[in-house]
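#dry-run=false #mode=assembly
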Amino acid sequence: MRKTAALVCIVIAFVFGGGVLFATTDALQDSAATGSVRGGAFDFGLTFGHGALSFNEYTGPGLSATLGATFGITSRLELDVVSVVELVPVPFADVVVGPEISYALLGERSFGDNRAGIGINTYVSAGLLFADHASDGNFAPTYLTLSLTPAVVGSPYSGKRERLAKIGAAWNFRDNSVSLYWSIALYDYYLVGTWKDFQ
Amino acid sequence: MTGPSFFMPSVVRRQFLVVVFLIISFLSLAPLGASPVRSFGYGLSAIGESGISHPESTMGGIGLSLAYAPFSFPWFEPSLKGEVVAGNTSSGFSLRFVRAAMGFDLFRTLRHPFSVMTNNPSAWSVSLDIGVQFDFDRMDELPKLYLACTPIKLEDKDFWYEWCAPYLTLDCSDGGVSIDSWGFVLFRFTYLVV
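#status=ok
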């Protein structure tokens, strides 16, 4: 039951993401033509990589992956829809999903026109994650996260981005406990808002 | 025992020496290959392993690896790989295992559906590995046979990007064959330096 709820939540997240994508693609194309999209959602990418909530009584030792999507909101802000999915020892046995807001500390992540954003950046992120990591077992908002990604190489304009050594804390406000929230590497593949869209 | 033991039983020591002999033999063949590209590198990977015969060894961790591919064959290109993995089990974080393997890239092609994953043009290959794995917690046992398949290996002159590689370790100690563990390499990122 909990697994089903988690999977439904992931589907909703991706449907939501797709809806935002389709809603913003026209705006993006219009703004790309005019050369200015500041303040609008102007890039979209898919995310894949490692991710984990460690030192947590609800997640045992193993390997989990991050699947998600990333949406540009402004030149420095982005919205990420992330899911942390267990792969080992039991694939999809545990799923955590939710939105994160990230802010680029070192400069513009994207200008939304025919100029590349900062190629090496640092992000600070805050998020709200849904999980069943509580004594009642309900799949509901569970974690507030705060994390820092010190090395972000690439940009939406270049079409690829690597987010390295993300580290932070996840506060389980239902159980009042704190976990380590971290990732070795996350890879973003941009479908909208790359240099190809500004030619 | 949480760390490596160097006091191996004689049968394990013999197998270890066989592996070392194979490595040296492989290295001695390198000049025959005359590879025009960089051939030696080091890598970082995200790995999870589920213990079948020893569930307490289930872990998630990080692997540090060395790779050597002195040849540049379009088919069945061999390479030599070594990897040490540290990870978190139910009993804490420690060195988990070390493995040595021979890899074979079945083919290499520039026309593939994964070009979107890299900025520079890259070649796609599928790699099969066979080798041995020594578990630091069970050094008194025979090493396990290690079999892996990497369905997505993207290569350019400086990097190998490997994605979503499942593997098995088999226990062949009692005359039969049984699955000791299975695992998954989410990614392995190898930087070629020489």
